[in-house]
Design goal:
Elements (H helix, E strand, L loop, with lengths): L2 H11 L10 H17 L2 H6 L9 H5 L4
């Protein structure tokens, strides 16, 4: 996909999809990380975190499996 189309999608939709950016192994790790983080988050924590970017603690990200 050409850069202009990606930029337009980003402006219009607030995100863009870059084909083949991540392989299946990275997607599996990412999904496992997110599922674990969300499973450990209690209702009070979700109430405090109104923005999606604040749902996962940065300390958790530093413990990302390599």
């Amino acid at each position: 996909m050409e850069t202009r189309k990606l930029a337009a999608q980003l402006r219009e939709d607030g995100f863009c999809v870059i084909p083949d950016m991540a392989d299946e192994a990275l997607l599996r790790k990412t999904r496992a990380c997110v599922e674990k983080a969300l499973a450990e988050y209690d209702a009070e924590g979700r109430e405090k975190a109104k923005a999606p970017g604040s749902l996962i603690d940065s300390d958790f990200i530093r413990s990302w499996p390599t």
